[in-house]
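Following up on my earlier thread - several people asked me to post the actual chain instead of describing it. Fair enough. Here it is, all 91 residues.
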Amino acid sequence: MPDHLTNKEKNWLVYIISCSDNSLYTGITTDIEKRFEQHKNKKGAKYFYGRDPLKIVFTEQGHDRSSASQREYEIKSYTRAEKIVLIKSEQ
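Reply from S.P.:
Thanks for posting it. Predicted structure:
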């Protein structure tokens, strides 16, 4: 992260959630617990209208809004196998 960014600007994180249909959902947020609850209550992404979020399996902290969005885009381009390697690398 660039040194000129404050901690408040770097409070974004990227996350991956395992879903009831065995898929992996990637998103960004500043409050992971609140966002997970939104997904569980169908108040978040439309992605969860046909499936349920089961568990947060990956988080990556220390981003600002821009870098979180860029990282989300990068992870969304990964194959399932690449996402699983990423998830296992954090455990």
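The radius of gyration is 13 Å. That should answer part of your original question.
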